[in-house]
Batch of 2 targets.
Target 1
Amino acid sequence: MKKPSKILIAIITVAVTLISTLAYEQYAGSQKSIIMLATTTSTYDSGLLDYLMPIFQSKFNAEVRIISVGTGQAIETAKRGDADLILVHSRQLELEFVNSTYGIHRVGVMYNDFVIIGPISDPAGINGLRSAAEAFRRIAEEGAEGNAQFISRADKSGTHMLELSIWKKVGLTSLKKTQTWYIEAGAGMGTVLRMANEKKAYTLTDRATWLSFKNQLADLRVLVEGDVVLLNPYAIILVNPERYPQRNYKGALMLAKWMMSEEGQNLIANFKKEGEPLFKPIARNIELAHMLGFPEQENELAWYDAQNP
Amino acid sequence: MFKDAFWQEILNITLLSLRVSGMAVLIGALIGIPVGALLGLKQFKGKRTVMRFVDIMLKSIINTFMGLPPVVVGLTVYLLLTASGPLGWLGILYTPTAMIITQLIMVVPIIIGVTMSAVGSVEKSIREKALSLGATETQAAWLVLREARMGVLTSIIAAFGAAISEVGGIMITGGNIRWWTRTLTTAIVIETELGNFTMALTLGAILLSMAFIINLALTIVQVKEARR
């Protein structure tokens, strides 16, 4: 019969295409070291990784695949064994990750800071305050009166975790915040910034994302900055190879080592948006690293420097 | 023009979209058309109430699966393919293959459902006449399927339309990795998040024109068919 043979040809064609596609993916993978990096939206959205990774990739014949999500989700991805290393910013979640033996060799790599931004009209009158907690208290007060709004990331990101810790300081837990002035967006930083601009609301943002988006946000400005609690350190943690031996531990080590090398740290320091540096390196500034929550920095740094993947 | 980094990325994204959705529909058609045809031919219209019950249940289930929420499919496939999931050993999470599997699960019910109703609506007399003229069961089935070819084609187009515009499922299983698993729809999401509206709108326009071209092709075939 003529027709069924055509079907047979079609089936064979599809099978061959599919198998060759799969084979190609495997082959392409075997030629290069493929490194899966789970990271936060801020490092990706600011353009830092798109600037750093091509340099690393061409130097080490590697391909870095980046999953950019909130810190909570990035850690969850690594816990499931779907990433080789993480670059995140939430001390509490990081320590949980290491203590549960999923991650090893947590080390500080860079930092920037958070700022509280809000509408130019500033209905809560927080402009110039030195204390983030005091600013939050005033926003909540004016919010209750119906004069101000606050947009929360509400996505378990590093930014969200910090926001919650500041609310806790002013005695507002989630139960008391379920009011119309407190908007839980469940979105990335860029989206939340644009929402704040539309709604003339307050929000907490990392400075890097703020600087990348500033020229799109005509009605917003930085109101509170410089509080110690607003410092935002980023850590690198390797996924424990004993838990997930199939992961690319060697590649992860290579990337982490490079990020902390003189070259990597200099590149991070030189990454600028509109003339302003977005991240400041801390891997080799032991004193600063200690202050930012990396008590083991010199030991970890020595460990990384001694590795030869 | 295509040496420009902007256009190079758009080309990369568009080709991946076509590859993933095209592959999903192709494999989906190979599974869905035979199953749909079989179900369409075997109308479970026995005299017994049991058979009628089976018929109704089967159709309701297929119709439900035709409207599977992509995010639910994505979540399920993710949980299967994650390294600590049952199929984690395959190591295909966050690859185009994982995205093809996700879309395949979405399109198979669409192809089955539409094919089934197209085959079911072909005049019963055609099959009976063929059988009475000495055709085998297979030959008669083939004849009915030929009669229903417009419906089958529609099922494929509908499946492709659903696949290419899907975002929730492949976002979860592909991870939206630049140069690797970023498709037209997931790229629109990230570019909007980043405020790159030029890029987002360009990708949207490409998506829209692809839908138009496909519908144009379908309409041309239908018009030709009607003239015969």
Note: Chain B has ten helices and no strands.
Target 2
Amino acid sequence: MFELIIRLSRYLFVFYIAYFLWQGVRYIAAERGLFEGKSYGAAAKQRIVIISMHITAFLILAYEPGGLSFNPAVLIYAAGSLLLLICMHLGASKLYKGSCTLIWNGVYFLLDTGLIMLWRLSPSLAQRQLIWFFVGAFAMFLVPPVLKIIPKFEKLEILYLTVGLGLLCTPFILGVPEYGALRSIRIGTMSLQPSEIVKFLFVFYLASAFRKKMGIWHIITLCGVSALYVFILVLQTDLGSALIFFMTFMVVMYVSTGSNILFLLGMGAMSAASYLAYNIFRHVRVRVAIWQDPWVDVHGIGHQIVQSLFAIATWGLLGSGLTLGMPNHVPVVARDMMFAAICEELGSLFGIGIIGVYIMIFYRGAHIALRCKRKYYSLLAVGFTAMMAFQTFLILGGTINLIPLSGVTMPFVSYGGSSVLVSSLMIGIVQWIFMYYSQTQAQGEEEEYA
Amino acid sequence: MHDMKKNIRRIFWLYFVMFLVVVVYLGNLILIESATMINSTFNPRLNRNNFTIKRGYIFDAHGNILAESVRSGDIYSRVYPYGNDFAHTVGFIGITKSGVEARHNFTLDNLDFEIIQRIRREFIDGSSLQGDNIHLTIEQPMQSLAAESLRGIRGGIAAIEPQTGRIIAMVSSPDFDPNNIGGIWGDLVADEENSPLLNRAAQGLYPPGSIFKLITADAIMNHMDNYEDFHVECAGTAHFNGESLRCFDARAHGNMNLSDAMKYSCNIFFAAAIIEIGYDKLMESAERMGFNTPHPFDLEFVISRFNMDENADIGEIMQTSIGQGRTLVTPLHMALVTAAVANDGIMMEPYIVERITSHTGRVKWEYGRRQTLPRPSQIFTSQSNADKIKEMMVEVVAGGTGTAARVAGITVAGKTGTAENPAGDAHGWFIAFAPAENPKIALAVLTENTGGTRRALEIARNMLEAYFE
């Protein structure tokens, strides 16, 4: 009986995400005047979908076979996390007045999907994730006041550059090896990847540098500096971050200069660098070899990706139904392979829907960049959106073996403190830019272009 | 600034295309690639439903039940009514899986209209959840006969319908009882001498011996303009550049042309002819025949190997031309070659699953429904060559080395082979098809270490007699 209900619930989950995305489309259509109706109505419906999904999923997770009894611990967790989501929403609408509702809803949806899957995979991880969730939300709420008190922070490019590079080099001195890679430092009991903090400094630096009109030497210097970042990351065997940094640089440069030649030159340089890296670094060759044929060593290095493929492909489009799959057979599933777990139990259609939610967020990120009147803010929005977009692409593509797997996390969904914190802060900054412009526009204030 | 807006839009479309690629790739993974991938033995989900639902039936071509799930309490156990006979084809489930049970595991476990089945079980009549059924091409009487005829020796048999590639029977000996796989598993794995788990028909590699002369004859006909006038005087033993070669029992066959040499299996003629036209011509014929190239097939199989290169000395060339050397073949592949001769030189892709039906009998998949039939996998040779080889093979059974396989009222075409091997006495081969005028069945029989072809001929005759009864 219970199995029947779970099987039926698969259709419900697909309905939830389809309805959620449909309301997103309606929101945008209404905003553009293509559609009769109020956009806030659509946004409210999206939030109702999230709450319904939350309740459905946790009722399934809490159910104890035999009779009509539910595990109280799960119910408490479900209520607590729902409360936190609601508080986050209230806080956001208070502290980020006039920010983009669609992005918030997308983030809530992803966070909630992450919590559901995490509880299913490992309740203890889900509990810890909730703490990170709280920390992330709190940090995010600090973004507007902090950015307000720093005057003219676009002028600090030298500071961003030196601090960024300095931080990035700390693992060479203070580093602790983790999975054979030297990319973390240890503070107390916490291990921290400096590259996560440097992401912010890097985007601030790029936006500051590119906001001005530039001569050819300036651009060459910028390329050199960015190449240095990427090179250090490759040395730390953090290939995923190296690619994210590089692509972010390319995107900001393209948006700022609009030069196709520079873009092509950059891609050419990347190809050459990839070729060199492939020949020089063993870990690069190993990654590529697994990608080309994960079946060669199914018990060894190919194990993770092969198990991920099984999880995704075994159950077809609708998945096995929550709790009926075997996602725990995928190694490091909560950190690296959340997408495989989602596709396995909630269905690949739901997984495709998740991709749709990300597209919605990045679409709104682009929308924010378009509305900015000052180049600096526009480039900030472009930079942070690019960081998240490429990170998402790398992990989704890696999970399905479209591209070599590089252990980056899935924003808002994967388990991990720094992942949640960094993603929240990025969204916070992007939203702050939007809010800033909505407010200044309302005041009729004209900004000059630098 | 206007430019920048254009650039931002372009970058968004870049993201969009990136994620579209992810979606398309994911769809391909789930809808197309998954079919073969998820049956991997490394997939922990393989056993998910094996014993908790009524797994689908496996039927033969006539509807006989080859495998069924029987309920005992809350779980089901798998029963194989024909026991040993289908050990290597239907296979088994349990500690591990093999055969069709492994290849189509998820089909057999798939619940058609699952929601309806579950509602029925919960609220209406408590009936079992039933998986989809598989209908094989194998004909149980032929299969059982073939299995019976190999008992006591090691060997493999494959029988095919030449025009379609449909597998009629496929057995391997020694076999085992899949009903008791849990109890005998340890012994089966430990028995390295007999390796009973190996499906010799599709996975056993053997030197082909004289049956390879079909391929040699094809090369000769293709590359010797006047091959009908090419004669060799066989004295039982011959020397080429210091390497010597003997015919079977050193029998002197006298003056031989191609047809006679085939009929009496004269080694010296074939070696002399290949030395005349060059080894590379032989390689060309062999590769056209499917050596060293994989083809799709539902059961585990190995590819026949033909190894000869420019470094081959005269001894190796001679040996290879008569089916010794480093050439290794499977009985299945030899049956396919025989079937190709029977089918005007066109080799068909072998297949073993005819149909998949739901528990209600609705046909969900059928061989050939999605593509035109028959499905040729290779053009082995021209129709005229095939006809010539066919004539020669008819002669072999009518008055040559294969007379023991004659069947009253039916023209049988065949070829014997005695394959020398390092493991002991020679292996006996017999390949045949019948009726020669309008072939209905082609088969390859291999008997390990029987010293000669008598047993193989007898088995082939019995099978042909049974088939045309």
Note: Chain B has a mean pLDDT of 90.
